[in-house]
Specification:
Helix content of chain B: 25-40%
Structural class of chain B: alpha+beta
Number of strands of chain A: 5
CATH topology of chain B: Heat Shock Protein 90
Shape of chain A: globular
Strand content of chain B: 25-35%
CATH superfamily of chain B: Histidine kinase-like ATPase, C-terminal domain
Distance between the termini of chain A: 40 Å
CATH superfamily of chain A: STAS domain
Oligomer: heterodimer
Radius of gyration of chain B: 15 Å
Number of domains of chain B: 1
CATH architecture of chain B: 2-Layer Sandwich
Shape of chain B: globular
Strand order of the largest sheet of chain A: 1-2-3-4-5
Largest interface: A-B, 24 and 29 residues
Order of helices and strands of chain B: EHHEEHEEH
Order of helices and strands of chain A: EEHEHEHEH
Structural class of chain A: alpha/beta
Number of strands of chain B: 5
Strand content of chain A: 25-35%
CATH class of chain A: Alpha Beta
Chain lengths: 115, 154
């Protein structure tokens, strides 16, 4: 059985920048796959890692935990993780949890590259 | 949160409505709990933002329960709401003796940061919440009151 909003990811690369575009719901079922993709991208060592969540409709504490650990790993490797968030519920959730102070959050991939 | 767990029939005055959902404690089934929660919240006349809040709160409640006990278990959610806009959700995780957990997707072990985030989310989204464990049965509950003020005007 699959979720009502399947989780999908697409990866794109440009010099020094990797973009992981996520779609659907990031919950306890999809968080391990999300974590694995982020860990792989961090291992490839891009200067900037952008997680585009503009098409993510739901994220819970396990998904946020994955982002927090990815941010720590990126920072530890001297790289930067930036988030693209446009969905109001996710913007609100980042504010509720104080994570909007932890991440660089922008509204488009281009803004993330330029941030 | 340390409040005592309210009995399922103490939501408030007036008529109560109840919905019960029982499902295998499987990470890939949690979307059913979220969907049911959203439908109940809409039926209880919650505003859109609170419907989304309840969807997330129920997800967090279920994750907490499922991470409390590995192995085959059944997750039961009881939704009880009244016409004053108070909604209680009671979650119970009960071991399923003699049932194999093969093929099920357990909730991953909750890391410290995820647990802290989950608590922060529940504190922010619902009016009250709590957990208790009796023997091998784990329970969690939350209460949310509708912010929709139209019922106050009637």
């Amino acid at each position: 059985m699959t979720s009502d909003a399947q989780f999908e990811m697409t990866r794109t690369h440009q010099p020094g920048v990797s973009v992981l575009q996520a779609r659907g719901e990031i919950d306890v079922a999809s968080a391990p796959e999300f974590h694995a993709s982020l860990a792989q991208l961090i291992g490839e060592g891009p200067e900037i890692l952008i997680v585009d969540m503009s098409e993510v409709s739901f994220i819970d504490s396990t998904g946020l935990g994955v982002l927090v650990s990815a941010e720590k790993e990126s920072r530890g490797a001297g790289h930067e993780l930036r988030l693209v968030v446009t969905q109001p519920p996710i913007t609100r959730l980042l504010a509720l949890t104080g994570l909007d102070e932890v991440f660089t959050v922008v509204s488009s991939t281009q803004d993330a590259v330029n941030a | 949160m340390t409040s005592a767990m309210p009995a399922p029939d103490t939501v408030g005055a007036g008529s109560l409505r109840r919905v019960e959902l029982s499902l295998a404690a499987d990470a890939q089934m949690l979307f059913l709990a979220r969907m049911t929660g959203a439908a109940v919240a809409a039926r209880a006349d919650f505003e859109y933002e609170q419907v989304e809040d309840l969807r997330l709160a129920i997800d967090e409640l279920c994750i907490g329960l499922m991470s409390a006990r590995p192995g085959a278990a059944r997750l039961t959610l009881l939704f009880v709401w009244d016409d004053q806009g108070t909604l209680d959700v009671h979650g119970t995780l009960t071991p399923e003796e003699g049932v194999s957990a093969n093929g099920r997707h357990p909730a991953p072990a909750v890391s410290g940061s995820s647990f802290e985030l989950s608590e922060r989310i529940l504190d922010a989204l619902v009016d009250d919440h709590g957990v208790e464990t009796i023997g091998e049965v784990h329970r969690a509950w939350l209460r949310m009151r509708a912010r929709n003020t139209s019922r106050d005007v009637d």
